[in-house]
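Troubleshooting entry. Yesterday's outputs looked truncated, so today I'm pasting the complete records for two proteins to confirm everything comes through intact. If either block looks cut off, that's the bug. Protein one:
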Amino acid sequence: MLSNDETAKQRFRESAVNGRIACSKCFEIADELGLRKDGIASTLTAMDIKIVQCQLGCFR
């Protein structure tokens, strides 16, 4: 069985389109897996996936 972190990375990879993923989708995945939202950006940066359509206006 995959750890939550590995499951999250897999879900982020599957949800990303052309190396981009919507902020709302990131939050949805974090909520489903019980992950903290404040670690999403660093994880996606390490995966070379860009957050788009940020709900807070932090990522553009």
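Protein two, checking that the full record survives here as well:
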Amino acid sequence: MTEHPDEERIESRAQLTPEETAAGSDDAHRQAEIILEDSDERTAHPEETKRASPQTPD
């Protein structure tokens, strides 16, 4: 797994989008950590994560 995202990135991502605000979030900071960790993993290993992603076309 990739390195834990830095605090500045987490704080920036923790600012919820309008859609996220409408849906609600129990912990925007933790949500941001998870999103960034997933994003970093996909960036670091695109071929490995492509097969597991329902959002990536073949």
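Both blocks look complete. Sanity check on protein two: Residues 28-44 form the longest helix (17 residues).
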